[in-house]
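Summary for the steering committee. One of the milestones for this cycle was to obtain a three-dimensional model of the protein with zinc ion bound, which we needed before selecting residues for the alanine scan. The sequence and ligand used are listed below.
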Amino acid sequence: MQLTILGRSPASPNPGEACAGYLVQGGGGRVLVDIGPGVVAQLLRRHHPDELDAIVVSHMHADHMLDLVTLRYVYPWRARPKDQRLRVILPPGSADQVLDLARGAGNPRHFEDAFRLSEHDGSSPFSFSGLSLTPVETEHFIPCWGFRAEADGRLLGYTADTGPCDAVQSIADGSDLFLSEATLHGLDEDAEPPERRGHLTPSEAGEAARRAGARRLMLTHLPVDGDGSWARVAASEAFGADAEIAEPSRGYEI
Ligand SMILES: [Zn+2]
Ligand SMILES: [Zn+2]
């Protein structure tokens, strides 16, 4: 199973980097999980979108889905035959927002003539050849789902965006690689109580990985200036082993 980092930026991009975008391949399947600003340009260095089985969107924040608008321009403007349209799997209940996004981009049919839009149901696994993804709902400012991706007997847990909650543990549980968001330098950057939290610090990601018995921890969706050592050190200490920082354009064997 392979993971390629197309973008690791949080909503405010790291200079020269794309926002959330992760290419996951294994078991004969290939999916792009999240498609934030800048991800399409990175994807096209490797694959035409027709080489994907699907695009899967974790939630409807701009840094995870806005490049769907850009992706449409990769295809000729005329409607594509229905059976050739790229599958886009959206979070439950997001169809209206996608229509609003299409209108905002200047054409209510912006997506439907090129893509086959559907929603997952929030809990059931879906698969592409031997690659399966199980959505797990996280705690965030809007509804959001992370995923447990399985192929070739290997397991990748991806948190998408989340505050500390049981879901983080479930996603990390027994994973060969736990790809965790670590957006916060400190708790003062998250929502104030009694508002619910929406993100993790690197130590919280490390703590969850340790408790869940994850074999490897990789931080993503974080502000990186320099080599990100502030985050790596904090996460490694809580994890009890070396944590890694996701490197843009790099492929990882899981
Ligand atoms: Zn978000
Ligand atoms: Zn985000």
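Key point for the committee: The helical segments are 39-43, 62-65, 67-72, 95-104, 166-172, 202-212, 229-239.
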